[in-house]
Amino acid sequence: MCGIVGYIGHREAYPIVINGLRRLEYRGYDSAGIALYDGKNIQLSKTKGKVADLEKRADSEISKKGSLGIGHTRWATHGVPNDVNSHPHYSNSGNLVIIHNGIIENYSSIKTELINRGYTFKSDTDTEVLVNLIEEVKKKQDVKLGKAVQIALNEVVGAYAIAVFDKNKPDEIVVAKLGSPLAIGVGDDEFFIASDASPFIEFTNNAIYLEDEEMAIIRRGRDIKIRQIKSDKLVKPFVQELKLNIEQIEKGGYDHFMLKEIYEQPSVIKDTYRGRLLADKGIIKLGGLEEYIPKFINADRIIIVACGTSWHAGLVAEYIFEDLARIPVEVEYASEFRYRNPIITENDVVIAISQSGETADTLAAIKLAKEKGAFVYGICNVVGSTISRETHSGTYTHAGPEIGVASTKAFTTQITVLTMIALKLAQVKGTISKSDYMMHLRELDMIPTHVAAALKSNDKIEEIAAVFKNATNFLYLGRGYNFPVALEGALKLKEISYIHAEGYPAAEMKHGPIALIDEHMPVVVIAINSNHYGKVVSNIEEIKARKGKIIAVVTEGDTVVRELADYVMEVPKTPESLTPLVTTIPLQLLSYHIAVMLNKNVDQPRNLAKSVTVE
Ligand code: F6R
User: Virtual CA dihedral for 197, 411, 408, 490, nearest 10 degrees?
Assistant: First the structure.
């Protein structure tokens, strides 16, 4: 959470930092701030609110001049969102200024010590404590800024990506990382700092990703010195060439990133299997998997750890792995798994799923599984992310940057990867017949076309959204492979429209939720042609008998449910094991349109952030 940006070079820093903050706003958006060195002084402006509010404020508050600058967009951890708690934060002398993404867990004891030494604090943040600790070390031990940062960071417990500079040494920025991401863009005689590469992609394709417990001293027009914070060892900078392009991080004519990302699904699903799935030849080849296939097929069980939407993708995988590859699967919330002393052995394979690759709970679950000797496989979207580096091997989804806070294309591309893994394992294990295997490959290859067809119902779904936009509760029901889709549909609705929604296995309805049903309750039922069709039809009858309103997701050509339901949303026919890839599309669109009609901030819903780097 929180986005950080910095620049040091020969251009004006203000537009680079502001533009970068706009791109990182998905990481946090309750306050924003900027500090520039104008050649003499620090120009600092910060405010509660969004980057647009910061720009208005900066217009009257600062000169906007200077070729060194740092900026921050916040998702509050310590201290409510207000002007004072916004970053950047000054040290007491006013010489040092810092931005920080993360949490300093032992800030309270450090703060007490600093207060005893005469320091005062304006904000409630842990960050202001850190910058004053750096100042204290610098003064007391008479060391340069880089050394002071290093010593101070050795005293703190927690997570951080920081950037700090000193008014009296305005030709360098010191950055450091532990647990929160930090990328350094390397241009010609200029350097960029950011939580991800999106703020600098139009300036350079060359980036260095700091590893945990590394810090860097970035000097204007000169070089970067990277050190390990604990051991003081110098690290040779490893410059990567990025594949990202500017179009991928802009809205491209859509009103919202979420809608753009929903519409990107046919192409990103294809990107995710391109070169990995050769349907005609019956080949699935995943680079990260090949060598480890014996581990998977000999595993006692597969444990999937993830959070939120990624956890829902894990639930879909449970069905497909058990159904096709006959390997027992357990799906765990990473946040629960890590704290409940789980039984993990060397014979377990753990799959960690994460769009951002930075989710703190998932990362902690991975560390725990590794400690216990399990083999850990990662499925991440963000290349070079912490989880992708912490896992033993893995597969990237190729969804491209997902900027809308509500996850859409990450979900379908995660399922695409998981399906390919399950099919590959099933083939090697011999738990699937050749004809069934070939059929699945051909059908998976058709999914982009089916998703594109499902998207054609957009106008109709918008009309349905208009009917139900004022409902205060929704129930989502699905069975088998589509039970996790019901959960995901409910999550999408609640996170962007703030309407209470619950996902439930359709058959469980009669064990409780049926009590909720009356004429005011819209019930979204995934009622596609499948093994459970007849049973789901009965559930629909039960809801109708209690005057509930049915919005059904049906297979093209369905007649039975069409008769019963108040509204239907059609999806193309595909084998049941692949249906989550298509049934999820109308549910994404439904929640999108309801949120737009309710005037909600679709891309940046309240209280949320795109990557959850706090526990
Ligand atoms: C929901 C959503 C979140 C994330 C969750 C995990 O739309 O985006 O529930 O799925 O925070 O994030 P990652 O996948 O980045 O680990």
Answer: -140
> Which of residues 425, 454, 483 is at a domain's end?
454
pLDDT tens sequence across 197-214: 999 999 999 999 999 999
Q: What is the DSSP letter of 149?
A: H
Matching residue, tokens 């006013």? 94
Mean pLDDT of the chain: 94
- Phi first, then psi: what are they for 235, rounded to 5°? -120, 135
Q: Residue with structure tokens 């496989």? A: 377
Residue 10 and residue 153 in one domain: yes
Range of the domain at 506: 456-602
Best residue among 304, 612, 614, 615 to mutate for probing ligand 1, ranked by most atoms within 8 Å of CB: 612
pLDDT tens-digit series, residues 456-482: 999 999 999 999 999 999 999 999 999
Examine the fold and report which residue of 454, 477, 512 is the final residue of a domain before the chain moves on.
454
CA of 504 to the centre of ligand 1 (A): 20
Closest CA to 27 of 99, 84, 97, 82: 99
The best mutation among 262, 331, 335, 359 to test binding of ligand 1, ranked by most ligand atoms within 8 Å of the C-beta, falls on 359
Half-sphere exposure in the Cβ direction for 469 (13 Å, CA): 18
Tell me the Ramachandran region of residue 64: left when phi exceeds 0, alpha when psi lies from -120 to 50, beta otherwise.
left
